[in-house]
Amino acid sequence: MEFILNGEEQQCTDCDANTTLLDYLRGPLGLKGTKEGCASGDCGACTVLMAEPGQPLRTINACITPLGNASNKQVFTVESLSAAASNLNSALHPAQQAMVDCHGSQCGFCTPGFVMSLAGLYQNGLRSGRKELSRDAVTDAISGNLCRCTGYRPIIEAGTKMLHYPAALLPVKATVPTKPAGGALLQDKQHTFYQPQGEAELQGLLAQNPTAVLVAGATDLGLELTQRHREFSVLVSLTAIKSLQRIEFDKQFLKVGAAVPYTDIENFIAPLSTPWAQLLHRLGSRQIRNQGTLGGNLANGSPIADMPPVLLAWDAEVEASIVALAREKL
After folding, report:
1. Residue 26 in 3-state DSSP?
2. CB–CB of 4/77 below 8 Å?
3. Are strands 234-237 and 8-11 parallel, antiparallel or unpaired?
4. How far apart are the first and last CA of the chain?
5. What is the helix (H) or strand (E) element at residue 9, kind and residue range?
6. Whose CA is closest to 149, among 111, 98, 203?
7. d(CA 30, CA 64)
8. Could you tell me if residue 112 is left (phi over 0), alpha (psi between -120 and 50 degrees) or otherwise beta?
9. 3 state DSSP class of 55
10. What is the mean pLDDT of the segment spanning 172-201?
11. Three-state SS across 161-218?
12. Per-residue pLDDT tens over the stretch 255-296
């Protein structure tokens, strides 16, 4: 498996398929800046930035992200910020410097997560030509970061002032290593992680591995790893199947792929349905919406799932694969 970490190529070999991105960062790589707080995607201490080519940086919770989901993507941890600031004759990125100047850090445990959320907002704002960051933009960016010392006022102030500092950009690359179709992404003697590139490969893997567990955003499945300490023998990721990541109009239907993250649905639906956009804005945090998917929300079968009431109200239709139904009967 390959991905870009802090601007450099990273290769993973002989890794347990159940390893989280956070454990890989803090363990084998020794990058201790990313913290583990709740290990359930709630506190934001483990926030890192992830991006695909040509896409904005997005915050994610590394604690509930399977390592395999970083394949062919770019990941930035808090350690990357000093390199981005090197052309400023400073060891601090503008997000960090603003936090210092506004006295936004108290005990400091949550600070790296806050800084990464702010750094993502800063970079995306700078690239889009923004000159100012509103309070609403800042509070949305840090909505998944908890400050146990109740220091939100200075943190929000720091966020609104970041763009006033000289520019410092993280080295987001235009292309990343691409894994060829076929074969396991991560594998040790007992566990395997697959990332099929298309629906045909997915169907084949499910037919060959009837007990495989599907992975999309893993915002719920990640809790099985960190809270229940479960080990899955075969994990199959949907993150590389483009047909499942589309949201588009098709004749009289709005079609939403099972692996479309909530953030993409939120952005697409905002000009079309204010109530749905408002509901999505209240669903989890920004980190959760950057990863969590509509298909995952339905597939988990939770009696308190957020999306079924919307789909019922819209008289939606759900398309399920024959292989998936056959596996359910097993």
Report:
1. helix
2. no
3. unpaired
4. 31
5. strand 8-11
6. 111
7. 18
8. alpha
9. coil
10. 81
11. HHHHCCCCCCCCCCCCCCCCCCCCCEECCCCEEECCCCHHHHHHHHHHCCCCEEECCC
12. 999 999 999 999 999 998 898 899 998 899 999 999 999 999
Tracing tokens 């483009």 back to the chain, one arrives at 242
CA-to-CA dists, residue 214 to 8, 164, 206, angstroms: 29, 44, 9
SS (H, E, C) 17-33: CCCEHHHHHHCCCCCCC
* DSSP structure class, residue 219: T
In the chain, the amino acid numbered 152 is Y
- The string over 167-196, giving b where at least 16 C-beta atoms fall within 10 Å of a residue's C-beta and e elsewhere, is ebebebeeebeebeeeebbbbeeebbbbbb
Question: For residue 320, which of 310, 328, 311 has the smallest C-alpha distance?
Answer: 328
**Phi, psi of 109, rounded to the nearest 5 degrees:** -65, -40
Tell me, what DSSP letter sits at residue 242? G
**Predicted confidence (pLDDT) per residue in 115-141, tens digit:** 999 999 999 999 888 989 999 999 999
Please give the helix or strand (H or E) that residue 307 lies within, else none: helix 307-313
**Which has the closest alpha carbon to 139: 151, 155, 150, 124?**
155
Q: What distance in Å separates the CA atoms of residue 156 and residue 145, rounded to the nearest whole number?
A: 12
Whether the Cβ atoms of residue 219 and residue 283 lie closer than 8 Å to each other = no
Collapsed DSSP state (helix, strand, coil) of residue 93: coil
Structure tokens given for 316: 């939606």
Token reading at 171: 């080295």
Distance CA 202, CA 217 (A): 16
Candidates 257, 263, 216, 222; CA nearest to 237 is 216
Taking phi over 0 as left and psi of -120 to 50 as alpha, with beta for the rest, 235 belongs to beta
Helices (H), 211-306: 221-226, 262-269, 274-281, 286-291, 294-299
User: Are the C-beta atoms of 116 and 155 separated by less than 8 Å?
Assistant: no
* Cα torsion 5, 9, 15, 18: sign: positive
